[in-house]
């Protein structure tokens, strides 16, 4: 690959910074193409550093206009400016003030890192290494400073000027059309948490009284005219602030908390101190434009970013290898919040679906890496499902192992001990070991070893003794750079469902009751002998998904149907149905590939019918049970020689069978779940819509014209986006005139609303027809599409590559070609988003030979391209790398 070969950064090379920065004073005069940045740093030698050293500051795509030390301009020869930094080889021996002036062009910034413009407004994104695109600075999270920022702009162009911390001064610049605002953030922070916003924005505001009685001014800023749609986000913020006080004793610390929504954003949102900046997709909501899923995401992302104030900002990361310290922990916290706001079991099922759909896939392919990686070439490529989602599972396992109280004691110790510091994973885990008085050294392997553990469980029942032996072996498959592994500590929550369907007590022979039913595995193979177990008892393994592992148990279909009917653990009841479906689907995939006829399983249909008939179950939960494994789930369970076409056909056959066999029940439920009255996004109402729309989709699966008409009517008449979108998604699966009419109508209705048009792009990109390739090519030329906007790219090309298994993986390789072409076109515009798109190839080795060869050719075409960004080059090289 002809690309700059940045050498890998290694955790083992970590050294404390030579220089510390106590204060940063910024004076930023905003201008569309010539923004002037004056930075004044109070530097002092780090007492922990080895000795006197040069001052080395990071920079990216900037040049210094002037450099002064203690007010004295430096000769050009006294410092060294390179494309990636500024070095002062002979700085003063003690503390000094360094002033640097730079000029940047926010309008030309298409990477959306540093200072850029979105819809004419100014905003910043500094995590992970964007601050160095604004000014020269030791851009590493263990350099924490107190920031004061003076912002100046044309009053007309940017009437609103926001910064971190509290507003301390504002006014007009006399004799000009300009005004200014000065923001001061008293909490030392790393530069990745710096932010500013300037523009014509409207806001929804509120005040929040904290647990100690302080008043905080809250604001959610959006493009003027969209204020109406910021109300739900503001309410979600208030709920998050209250919850963190109640659940973790964490109080907000500034007088102001602002959130700004922008239309162009590389990720979901960013936790800048006191000034969160969001992808507007996670702010803007109205019943007509946002689905129930959108509302739930908004609530979760608002909470996530808010929770970072303590887990990320007050306590930050020592270096980027520790990313999971803030991300995994904060995902865990937002999951808990959503569980408390909504349904805990449904949230758990949804989270596990995401974990398996993204993280297990990552773990099984060439991009597998530990929750805490020990080397990287491009840190932007490590904002992954492993760091976030598996990182959250690791925190959850700590809670499961220690129990709620001791877990909370560990969290309290962490907050008390590390407040104001840049911490490590070791320091985090030490707090739990200490608070609980337990040894967590083996547990640290969860941070160091990549891959998904596989448990093989074999039962032996001794009728005479009334014991059940569970022989459990764990294997952690090899991953890149990690050929062999050590056994992990695995908290396995166990249930014993007795012959009458009730839970039995869990007692280990010779040891007595098992604390909370959690078996703790620590060895490669071990046997647990449970006593007081009558014949006909079925074990319910990994209840609540207590560990992020795969389980291979010797449960029969009868056992699974028994659990599907009786398991008191809602997660495992759902899991039993999923496992039944998965086994049937995998069998039928093989049958289809062999040219045979698919097997129809009346027992499975019966199990589903029983769940449908159980009136005690919440609709949202039943909707999850009725949603059979996705094509991705099936591919992952098959694991090798994957044929996406056969998977699609097997899944379609099952959906048709369910639609036919359950038709009367589905239709009754569809009618009964109808909700009149105004739309409300609350969880219970959303759950009824979810189930009703799953019923509609299954009813339509066999393609009966009456059901298609029902879907078309719902799509046309719905008064909310959830029902409209669900009906449109159902229609999209059926090649009928109604489909094209509904798509055209949808576009006309929402053509001025980019976030809704994204749904329209995404839906079409996911249609599992051969015609989709041309459709997507056509849509890429649509006036509403743009490579400059990450949401558009993700909606159209991202959905095609990540969610359209048959068409992305076309046997002729044309799907791969389309995505490679897009990655190449995008790389010069926005390498971060291009690299993310390129990860669509991460499962290429698991494909059947024809597709595998075509996917490899696509990756090789990328690899052979001159001047690839470091972001894309890193993904491509690792994807092609030997295991
Ligand atoms: Zn985060």
Question: Would you kindly provide a written description of the structure presented here, covering whatever features stand out?
Answer:
The longest helix has 24 residues, at 570-593. The mean pLDDT is 98. An 8-stranded mixed beta sheet has the order 6-5-9-3-2-12-15-14, with no helix packed on it. Strands 17-18-19-21-20 form a 5-stranded mixed beta sheet, with helices on one face. It contains 27 helices and 33 strands. The radius of gyration is 28 Å and the shape is globular. The protein is of the alpha+beta class and 883 residues long. Helix 5 (385-402) crosses helix 6 (404-418) and helix 12 packs parallel to helix 16. Strand 18 (215-223), helix 1 (231-248) and strand 19 (256-262) form a beta-alpha-beta unit. The structure holds zinc ion (ZN). The site of zinc ion has 4 residues, from helix 3.
Summary, kept brief:
This protein has 27 helices and 33 strands. The protein has 883 residues and is of the alpha+beta class.
**Main sheet: strand order:** 6-5-9-3-2-12-15-14
Helix content: 40-55%
Radius of gyration, whole Å = 28 Å
Query: Which band does the percent of strand residues land in?
Result: 15-25%
- What structural class do the secondary elements suggest? alpha+beta
Q: What number is the mean pLDDT?
A: 98
* Secondary structure: number of strands: 33
- Report the end-to-end length measured between terminal Cα atoms: 19 Å
The description of the largest β-sheet is:
8 strands, mixed
* Rough outline: globular
Individual helix count: 27
Low-confidence stretches: none
- Which molecules are bound in this entry? zinc ion
């Amino acid at each position: 690959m002809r690309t700059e070969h940045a050498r890998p950064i290694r955790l083992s090379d970590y050294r404390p910074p030579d220089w510390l920065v106590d204060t940063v004073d910024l004076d930023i005069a905003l201008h569309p193409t010539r923004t002037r940045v004056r930075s004044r740093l109070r530097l002092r030698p780090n007492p922990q550093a080895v000795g006197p050293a040069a001052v080395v500051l990071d920079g990216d795509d900037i040049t210094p206009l002037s450099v002064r030390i203690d007010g004295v301009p430096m000769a050009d020869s006294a410092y060294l400016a390179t494309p990636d930094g500024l070095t002062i080889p002979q700085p003063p021996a003690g503390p000094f003030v360094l002033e640097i002036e730079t000029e940047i062009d926010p309008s030309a910034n298409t990477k959306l890192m540093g200072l850029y413009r979105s819809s004419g407004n100014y905003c910043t994104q500094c995590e992970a290494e964007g601050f160095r695109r604004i000014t020269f600075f030791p851009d590493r999270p263990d350099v924490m400073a107190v920031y004061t920022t003076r912002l100046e702009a044309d009053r007309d162009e940017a009437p609103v000027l926001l910064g971190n911390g509290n507003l301390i001064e504002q006014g007009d610049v006399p004799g000009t059309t300009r005004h200014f605002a000065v923001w001061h953030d008293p909490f030392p922070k790393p530069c990745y948490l710096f932010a500013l916003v300037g523009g014509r924005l409207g806001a929804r505001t509120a005040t929040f009284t904290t647990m100690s009685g302080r008043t905080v001014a809250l604001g959610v800023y959006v493009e003027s005219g969209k204020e109406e749609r910021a109300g739900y986000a503001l309410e979600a913020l208030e709920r998050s602030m209250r919850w963190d006080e109640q659940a973790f004793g964490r109080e907000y610390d500034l007088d102001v908390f602002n959130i700004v929504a922008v239309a162009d954003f590389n990720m979901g949102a960013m936790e800048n101190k006191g000034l969160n900046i969001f992808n507007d997709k996670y702010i803007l909501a109205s019943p007509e434009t946002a689905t129930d899923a959108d509302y739930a995401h908004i609530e979760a992302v608002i909470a996530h970013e808010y929770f970072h104030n303590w887990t990320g900002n007050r306590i930050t990361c020592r270096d980027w290898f520790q990313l999971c310290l803030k991300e995994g922990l904060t995902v865990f916290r937002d999951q808990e919040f959503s569980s408390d706001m909504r349904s805990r079991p449904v949230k758990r099922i949804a989270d596990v679906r995401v974990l398996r759909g993204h993280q297990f896939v990552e773990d099984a392919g060439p991009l597998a890496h530990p929750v805490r990686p020990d080397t990287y070439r491009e840190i932007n490529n490590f904002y992954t499902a492993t760091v976030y989602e598996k990182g959250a599972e690791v925190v959850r396992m700590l809670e499961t192992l220690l129990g709620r109280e001791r877990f909370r004691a560990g969290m309290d110790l962490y907050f008390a001990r590390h407040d104001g510091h840049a911490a490590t994973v070791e320091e985090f885990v030490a707090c739990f070991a200490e608070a609980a008085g337990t040894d967590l050294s083996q547990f640290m392997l969860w941070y160091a070893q990549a891959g998904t553990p596989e448990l093989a469980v074999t039962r032996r029942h001794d009728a005479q003794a009334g014991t059940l032996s569970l022989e459990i072996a764990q294997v952690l498959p090899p991953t890149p750079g990690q050929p062999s592994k050590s056994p992990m500590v695995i908290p396995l929550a166990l249930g014993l469902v007795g012959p009458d369907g009730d839970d039995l007590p869990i007692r280990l022979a010779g040891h007595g009751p098992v604390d909370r039913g959690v078996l703790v595995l620590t060895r490669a193979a071990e046997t647990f002998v449970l006593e007081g177990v009558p014949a006909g008892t079925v074990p319910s393994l990994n209840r609540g998904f207590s560990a992020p592992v795969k389980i291979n148990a010797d449960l029969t279909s009868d056992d699974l149907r028994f659990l599907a009917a009786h398991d008191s653990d809602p997660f495992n009841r759902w899991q039993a149905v999923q496992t039944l479906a998965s086994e049937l689907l995998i069998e039928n995939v093989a049958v289809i590939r062999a040219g045979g006829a698919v097997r129809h399983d009346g027992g499975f249909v019966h199990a589903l019918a029983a769940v449908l008939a159980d009136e005690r179950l919440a609709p949202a939960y039943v909707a999850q049970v009725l949603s059979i494994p996705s094509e991705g789930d099936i591919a992952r369970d098959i694991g090798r020689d994957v044929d996406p076409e056969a998977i699609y056909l097997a899944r379609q056959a099952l959906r048709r069978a369910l639609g036919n066999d359950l038709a009367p029940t589905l239709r009754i439920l569809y009618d009964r779940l109808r909700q009149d009255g105004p739309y409300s996004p609350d969880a219970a109402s959303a759950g009824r819509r979810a189930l009703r729309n799953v019923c509609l989709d299954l009813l339509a699966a066999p393609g009966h014209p009456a059901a298609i008409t029902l879907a078309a009517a719902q799509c046309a008449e719905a008064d909310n986006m959830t029902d409209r979108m669900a009906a449109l998604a159902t229609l999209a699966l059926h090649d009928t005139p109604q489909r094209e009419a509904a798509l055209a109508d949808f576009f006309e209705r929402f053509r001025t609303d980019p976030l809704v048009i994204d749904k329209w792009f995404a839906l079409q990109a996911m249609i599992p027809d051969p015609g989709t390739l041309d459709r997507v090519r056509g849509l890429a030329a649509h006036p509403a599409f743009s490579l400059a906007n990450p949401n558009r790219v993700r909606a159209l090309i991202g959905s095609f590559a990540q969610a359209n298994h048959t068409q992305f993986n076309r046997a002729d390789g044309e799907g791969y070609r389309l995505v490679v072409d897009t990655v190449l076109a995008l790389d010069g515009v926005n390498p971060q988003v291009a690299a993310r798109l390129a990860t669509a190839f991460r499962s290429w080795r698991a494909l059947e030979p024809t597709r595998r060869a075509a996917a490899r050719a696509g990756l090789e075409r990328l690899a052979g391209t001159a001047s690839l960004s470091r972001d894309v080059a890193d993904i491509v090289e690792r994807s092609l790398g030997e295991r």
